[in-house]
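Long-time lurker, first post. I've been practising inverse folding by hand and with some scripts of my own, and I keep getting stuck on stretches where the structure tokens seem ambiguous. Below is the full token string for one chain I'm working on. Before anyone asks, I'm not after the true native sequence, just a reasonable design that respects the backbone. If someone could post their per-position residues I'd love to compare against what I wrote down in my notebook.
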């Protein structure tokens, strides 16, 4: 056992913050260390029964010191405005063992206390410098190799560390999704970007383990294990016993997870390298060998507060702070290094100070490097769009043989005009023919073929490895999509109803759409998310099946949202969305108007006015390009989705009543809105109507009107026909809260005479 740490006395503490106290404690501990000395071991374990050898101990200690001095540097230089992040890893340096015992090709999704892990993983590839790379990230330098100066993240493309921001537990679903996708890719015969026997590492804190997003990942891991589905994910719960200021009840994590079915529990001491090393090794080897979800409960402590702005002395008892500081893992590691004869006191202190100087020198250097200066630089990786490459990909037709295998002579373009549901189904068949790495999944999409039969026949045509049901959990569906994308596939997840998206929206907002931004476009998770939604269903109503709230999708940076109103447009848009995902790595949403799925007529029963021929391969709808009905200038109507056939019927009545020539403009693309195209369609208009089936607040119509006003068209007489700010009720009452054809006609009549 190593020597006791001197308890700081008030005189010694006077004027020092907790970071300075931890620093001083280490130096004093080493100076006064009087433990046994040994000759440097040639090889073998540093202690009897330990799996840790001398070389590994010394390197782990060096990685721990790097992590600690990065923390200390950040506290000092933050007040000088040279670094911009102070959530540290002090007390968690034992996670370096996880890095040492895994491979750099094991994908890692880490929480923010992972300095030790990163310093150790950098050893896996020669020529990489964890100190300089971290300093550039702390300084928000444009040269930061992880994010290009957009955030302090632990990330590295060469080391397969996918960058995470400070969102709590939201990375767990995609970590599990990556593990499931790794195994699914092997079964599909898809080339994987990492070795087939890789495991996925996902770290988080004890407080985060309580979060609903974490629990959905644990539940799905157990659900998968119960069905004997391989899911080689190593959940690393770094338990320091506190979340900011809220204590975790003693024993809570162990009792919650030790006997959880389908989740294999291991405990390890992250404060003691010889003890913890073999325990971590057992967990890693178990996960890799069995391909089962594994929970590694790693004991840690928290030093220096939650972040630089957390003055623990104001709310945490001094005795508790001193006890935490006495358990500092660096003290134990230093004692071990000296006991093993690897370094003497002077050698440890020299290494400690040399590491300090290295971190400060790197930080000063990083502070002199350029930072992001212009908006164009900031957003460059957010939403890449190579228009010509996307156009070519969307129109690519070199998969005819596969189409023949699926349809034979009954190719969809040779069939009679069909309605929206049939053509979406045919379009999905086509995408799975075109892209052999595509997987389609969601609730009820396989044997049943979807609630509205839009995925009917896909399971039979492409098999259960490419078309499969998931458990009822939208958060995990989107996490699984990110995982498949991480492993090089093109996922098409289905969210059964728009209302079901909202409890899972952060998987798009905070995770999927942010990855390109925070990795400086080094990592991508392309996907095409299908969501059935909007109102006007008859006989199957209520809020959850008629949700018209689009606002949650409109402000997600980098997202693309398309909304077709007719079958041929749907096919052309699906081709473009898949091309955007494949070429530019984009996250795309296809919002399908449920009420139009089976619509066949436009003006009168039996007229077949809403049936259209299937567009042959080689045709596509370009991003931002709407559809125009008519060339009139007396009234221009902007709309989308259900509003399109409604506005066309109203346009006929308006023309008959007022003698106007009416043009109806189907936006088709809701995010991003093509403001220039919208303004071009409104140029010369005598009157404008915006028909928006969404809610009045934050609906698409607001974006259309803003585009018109900013284009200098605010003086044109204008009305908005829009849904009410309410939930959708059941039965006929639903029609009271949604725009109706009569409302469109009435709004047109209210418009002022032409100028």
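-- Answer (accepted) --
I ran through it position by position. Result:
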């Amino acid at each position: 056992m190593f020597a006791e740490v001197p308890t700081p006395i008030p005189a010694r503490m006077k004027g020092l913050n907790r970071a300075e106290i931890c620093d001083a404690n280490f130096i004093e501990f080493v100076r006064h260390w009087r433990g046994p000395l040994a000759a440097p071991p040639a090889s073998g374990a540093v202690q009897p029964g330990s799996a840790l050898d001398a070389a590994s101990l010394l390197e782990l200690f060096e990685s721990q010191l790097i992590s600690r001095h990065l923390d200390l540097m950040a506290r000092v230089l933050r007040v000088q405005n040279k670094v911009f992040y102070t959530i540290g890893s002090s007390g968690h340096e034992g996670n370096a063992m996880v890095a040492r015992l895994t491979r750099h090709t094991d994908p890692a999704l880490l929480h923010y206390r992972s300095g030790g892990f990163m310093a150790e993983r950098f050893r896996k590839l020669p020529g990489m410098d964890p100190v300089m790379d971290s300093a550039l990230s702390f300084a928000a330098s444009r040269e930061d190799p992880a994010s290009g100066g957009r955030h302090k993240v632990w990330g590295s493309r060469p080391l397969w560390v996918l960058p995470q921001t400070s969102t709590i537990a939201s990375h767990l679903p995609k970590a599990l999704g990556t593990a499931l996708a790794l195994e699914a890719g092997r079964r599909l015969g898809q080339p994987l970007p990492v070795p087939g026997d890789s495991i996925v590492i996902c770290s988080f804190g004890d407080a985060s383990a309580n979060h609903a997003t974490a629990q959905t990942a644990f539940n799905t891991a157990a659900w998968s294990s119960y069905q004997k589905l391989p899911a080689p994910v190593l959940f690393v719960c770094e338990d320091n016993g506190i979340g900011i200021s809220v204590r975790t009840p003693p024993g809570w994590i162990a009792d919650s997870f030790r006997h959880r079915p389908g989740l294999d529990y291991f405990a390890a001491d992250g404060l003691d390298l010889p003890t913890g090393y073999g325990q971590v090794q057992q967990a890693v080897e178990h996960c890799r060998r069995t391909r089962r979800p594994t929970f590694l409960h790693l004991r840690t402590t928290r030093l220096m507060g939650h972040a630089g702005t957390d003055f623990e002395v104001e709310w945490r008892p001094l005795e508790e702070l001193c006890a935490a500081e006495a358990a500092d893992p660096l003290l134990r590691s230093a004692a071990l290094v000296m006991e093993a004869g690897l370094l003497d006191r002077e050698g440890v202190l020299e290494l400690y100070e040399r590491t300090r100087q290295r971190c400060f020198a790197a930080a000063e250097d990083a502070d002199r490097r350029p930072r992001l200066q212009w908006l164009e630089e900031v957003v460059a990786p957010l939403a890449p769009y190579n228009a010509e490459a996307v156009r070519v990909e969307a129109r690519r037709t070199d998969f005819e043989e596969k189409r023949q295998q699926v349809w034979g002579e009954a190719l969809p373009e040779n069939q009679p005009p069909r309605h929206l549901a049939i053509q979406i189904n045919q379009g999905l068949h086509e995408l799975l023919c075109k892209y052999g790495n595509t997987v389609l999944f969601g609730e009820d999409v396989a044997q049943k073929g979807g609630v509205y039969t839009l995925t009917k026949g896909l399971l039979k045509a492409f098999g259960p490895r490419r078309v499969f049901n998931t458990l009822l959990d939208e958060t995990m569906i989107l996490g699984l999509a990110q995982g498949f994308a991480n492993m090089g596939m093109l996922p098409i997840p289905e969210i059964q109803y728009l209302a079901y998206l909202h409890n899972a929206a952060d998987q798009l907002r905070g995770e999927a759409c942010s990855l390109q931004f925070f990795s400086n476009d080094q990592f991508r998770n392309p996907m095409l998310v299908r969501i059935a939604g909007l109102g006007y269903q008859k006989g199957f109503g209520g809020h959850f099946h008629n949700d018209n709230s689009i606002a949650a999708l409109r402000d997600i940076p980098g997202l693309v949202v398309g909304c077709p109103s007719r079958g041929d447009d749907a096919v052309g848009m699906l081709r473009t969305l898949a091309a955007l995902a494949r070429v530019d790595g984009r996250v795309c949403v296809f919002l399908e108007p449920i009420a139009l799925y089976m619509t066949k007529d436009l003006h009168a029963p039996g007229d077949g006015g809403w049936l259209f021929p299937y567009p042959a391969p080689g045709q596509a709808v370009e991003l931002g390009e709407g559809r125009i009905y008519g060339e009139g200038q007396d009234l221009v109507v902007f709309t989308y989705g259900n509003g399109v056939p409604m506005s066309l019927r109203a346009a006929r009545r308006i023309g008959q009543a007022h003698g106007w020539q009416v043009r109806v403009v189907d936006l088709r693309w809701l995010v991003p809105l093509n403001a220039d195209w919208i303004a071009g369609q409104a140029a010369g208009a005598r009157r404008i109507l915006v028909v928006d089936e969404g809610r009045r607040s934050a609906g698409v119509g607001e974006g259309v009107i803003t585009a018109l006003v900013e284009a200098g068209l605010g003086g044109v007489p204008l009305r908005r026909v829009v849904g009410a700010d309410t939930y959708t009720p059941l039965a006929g009452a639903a029609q009271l809260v949604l725009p109706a054809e009569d409302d469109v006609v009435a709004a047109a009549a209210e418009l002022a005479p032409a100028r």
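A couple of notes from the structure itself: Confidence is low (pLDDT under 50) at residues 1-11. The first helix runs from residue 10 to 13. Happy to go over any region you disagree with.
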